Amino acid sequence: MLSGKGGVGRSTLTVSLGAVLAERNGVVLADANVAAPHLHLFTGVVQEEVVESLAAKAVVDYDLCDHCMKCLEVCRFSAIIGGEEPIIFNCFCTGCGACSLVCPVDAITVQSVVNGRLNILDTGWCRVVAGDLDIGESGSGRLVGAVRKRARLEAEKRGAGFILIDGPPGTGSPAIASMKGADYVILVTEPTPPALHDLQRIVDVVARYAIPAGIVLNRCGMPEAGTRQMPAGLRARNHDLLAEIPLDPLLPAALAEGRPAAEAFRAAPASRAIRRLARTMENRLL
User: Fold this and answer.
1) What ranges do the domains of the chain cover?
2) Which CATH number applies to 10-43+123-285?
3) pLDDT in tens, 11-23
4) What architecture (CATH level 2) is domain 56-114?
5) What phi, psi does 246 have (nearest 5°)?
6) Fewest C-beta in 10 Å: which of 128, 158, 222, 252?
7) What is the CA radius of gyration of the chain?
8) Closest to 283 measured CA to CA, from 253, 243, 256, 246
9) Which residues pair with 145 in a beta bridge?
């Protein structure tokens, strides 16, 4: 699931769609929004396991450093500052190792440090694999890759038919990493000009990777000024409109209970639309 714009209901749709699919197929949910994971807020999960995530970072041994500052000159990521001696900012360092290669006294090494973790959770009806990046850390794309890999392992263990990945907002490396190897991308949007603008951007990104994609129009029934623009945008991009989910006051009520909307209020208009979407995805992918 990708959206371009945040706040359009991507995560709540992921959970509700997963709950419906789990009725007839095993499901694993993967929270790839590693900077702000929150699928667990909607599912009533129990913590099962925590796995530390490691990233490569440059480290200076100041006892060996001769203060030549060649490392500062070669760093392409502005991760090194300093006048008399190099100071490395971990949040900018990508662990490329260029600084260690140019150091004449071998004072810089690239080491593994903890930059986040994988939380393995259980909802009772599915497993959830959530990435959680430490504040200010880099390497979000790498952590998303670890989330995908563990989710695949959990799916194989349980014979799950679906892995639903809740991707991050935006079009950067975490979003790209979240759709790597995907069979299908569901693009979630709402009928507002900002959401349509960001939808167009993420559609361009998905097109570069030739992954089949369809669009879910969430919160239908919003002010007409926004809805008039949406059909033209969809036609221009030539993507299937998978579902139109109505604006439904029972959805925030389900969120307040920490439950998937399609489970908490099965007869709600939005829940019925999500169930139709689930049948559509089963027919396309199974």
Assistant:
1) 10-43+123-285, 56-114
2) 3.40.50.300
3) 999 999 999 999 9
4) 2-Layer Sandwich (3.30)
5) -70, 155
6) 252
7) 22
8) 243
9) none
**Per the structure block, which two tokens stand in for 265?**
């209020």
Instruction: Tell me whether strands 185-189 and 46-60 are parallel, antiparallel or unpaired.
Output: unpaired
Amino acid at 80: I
pLDDT digits 0-9 by tens, 170-189: 998 899 999 999 999 999 99
- Tell me if 10-43+123-285 shares its fold with 56-114: no
Q: What are residue 29's phi and psi, to 5 degrees?
A: -100, 135
Which ranges of the chain does DSSP label H, i.e. alpha helix?
A: 10-21, 70-74, 98-102, 140-158, 173-178, 193-208, 224-227, 230-237, 250-257, 261-264, 269-285
pTM for this prediction: 0.86
74, exposed or middle or buried, with CB in 10 Å at 0-12, 13-18, 19+? middle
